[in-house]
Amino acid sequence: MTAVPEARCGPGSSPVVGVQGEVPAADRASGRSKRGYSCNVHPVSAFPGHGGGIVSTSYDHCGYLGTVFPGAAIARDPGVEVVDASDPHRLRKSTTLTAPALQAGTWETLKVNTPRKLLVGTGVPFLFGAGLISVYDVSDCARPRLLNHVAGTPKAPLPITSHEGGFSPDGRTYWTSGLGPGLLTAVDLSVPARPRVIWQGLTGLEAHGFGISQDGSTLYLSHNFGGISIYDIRQVTERKAHPNVPLRGRLTWNDAGWATQHSVPVDYGDQRVLFTPTEGGSGGVKVIDATDPRRPRLINTIKLAINLPENQDRGVASTSGGGIFGYESHYCAADRPRNPTALACGWTSSGVRVFDVRDPLHVKEIAYYVPPARPASPLTAWNSPHVMSAVIGVPVMSAPSILDSLRKGRFDPAQARSRRNGILLSDLSTDGCFSPPEWRGNRLYVSCADNGFQVIELTNDVYRAPADQQSTVGS
After folding, report:
1. Cα–Cα distance between 457 and 449 in angstroms, integer?
2. What is the DSSP code (8-state) at residue 157?
3. Within a 10 A sphere around the Cβ of 30, how many other Cβ atoms?
4. Which of 127, 145, 336, 382 is deepest in the core (most CB within 10 A)?
5. pLDDT tens across 322-341, in order?
6. Is residue 385 a contact partner of residue 425, using CB atoms and an 8 Å limit?
7. Residue 425 to residue 451: CA distance in whole angstroms
């Protein structure tokens, strides 16, 4: 029930005046939030594109922007946009990836594996997807090459369901988890052109995001309702015939933050620690000691002040006009998998938050970046979940005309107004940062819903990149 110590903002900062993590209602109403906020962060550049999807990813000097259905399938330039950041001060689009799975909406499945130089996404039209998977070679990151032209396409769909997806660290296995009916699936990518299912298990409501240990032996699966389950996946990793995936341990909680998002496994010496964000409330990031997988235990929680019960009314008041999500953690990334020094998180309307985690029991905030509110319409930002959730929220009679406008390249904002609920698509008083920030020295590649792909730089010596920095987000 306490917040982490606030960042001390140095020269060049433009901090929020108010409660830690909040974008005050007065700033939203006055337009101040359109200029954004920063604390020990310098925004280098941005490429809005058609929006940042829900979870985007990157490899080398390139960013890959996630997609949201139906805009990703019917708009003028459908698919995953590839952003070339070889000159971080001048971002440019190099191409669009148009495989069926990517046009169907990638939700939280678009991931990169660095050792194998592979990009994978599955088709998730709305919350739940089945059958479609796309595998790209990103050796030339600005010009990815589609590898699977049959398996995982409408010609030969795979027996998978998905909402989330991610790699085992060695890149030989891509895992999918689907909210319903709760299938966890291992897809073999030994031959990337021919993905095939090699194991599948029914986990029920334990089917949100996950994290995998660096040795590929353990999978930490998020519950949809407050908790994690720990599975031994060595027989899949080792490609045993008829593999068994036993449950080794489980931890649950019932405080705020009902949907466990994913886990970032890191090691402090011999201690295994999980940073586990929660969404759908104010649960923050759980810090879990998983050294003994049979007895995982909660040892800390990372929260901002706006997540505390005494600030609940402020949080509700200031987010009421900014979309369906508020001040909640979503996806995080550590700067390295062993003895990490920093954790960066997409914290939805609170922007990107950066924490000193050298001691997981005493975490403190060192920097933040809240991107400027960027009013948008589905004509240009059809891969923004902000915009597309507003399209879903308009009256049924209006939705077809809006989608038709997307096809024809015309949009009238008046069509987006609902007499019932007052929604206007261009009235978005903050952005939403859902993706994991990805480490590049003292720079971060960041993707947010409306501002798209961004490069930001940590300043004022609040962070020094370790020589062996390797983000855990690759899996």
Report:
1. 19
2. -
3. 10
4. 382
5. 566 789 999 999 999 999 99
6. no
7. 15
User: Are the C-beta atoms of residues 37 and 15 closer than 8 Å to each other?
Assistant: yes
Cα 136–94–141 angle (5° rounding)? 40
Token reading at 108: 């939280």
- Is the peptide bond preceding residue 181 cis, with omega within 30 degrees of 0? yes
> Helix 385-393 vs helix 399-408: angle between axes, to the nearest 10 degrees?
140
Closest CA to 108 of 129, 137, 139, 135: 129
Place of tokens 């003895």: 339
- Residue found under tokens 């107004």: 417
Q: State which amino acid sits at residue 143.
A: R
Task: For residue 155, give the amino acid letter.
Answer: K
Joined together, the tokens standing for residue 341 give 């020094």
At 186-231, the pLDDT tens digits run 999 999 999 999 999 998 878 899 999 999 999 999 998 899 999 9
- Look up residue 29 and give its two tokens: 């109403």
The owner of tokens 């030969």 is 156
Q: What amino acid occupies position 403?
A: L
432 and 337 Cβ atoms separated by less than 8 Å? no
Buried b / exposed e across 190-212, counting CB within 10 Å, b at 16+?
eebeebeebbebebeebbbbbbb
177: tokens are 């988890």
**Encoded tokens for 140:** 């030339």
pLDDT exceeds cutoff 80 at 181: no
Cβ-based neighbours of 121, under 8 Å, separated by 6 or more: 66, 67, 80, 101, 102, 106, 109, 110, 111, 133, 134, 165
The Cα 297–Cα 318 span in angstroms is 34
The alpha carbons of the chain give a radius of gyration, in whole angstroms, of 21
Which DSSP category does 209 fall into? -
Token representation of residue 366: 């060192």
Taking residue 215's Cβ as centre, other Cβ atoms within 10 Å add up to 12
Task: Supply 215's token pair.
Answer: 């040795």
Angle value at C-alpha 270, between 269 and 276, nearest 5 degrees: 85
How much is the pLDDT for 60?
A: 97
- The model carries a pTM of 0.92
Whether the per-residue pLDDT at 39 is higher than 70: the answer is yes
Q: Taking a C-beta distance cutoff of 8 angstroms, is the pair 59, 78 a contact?
A: no
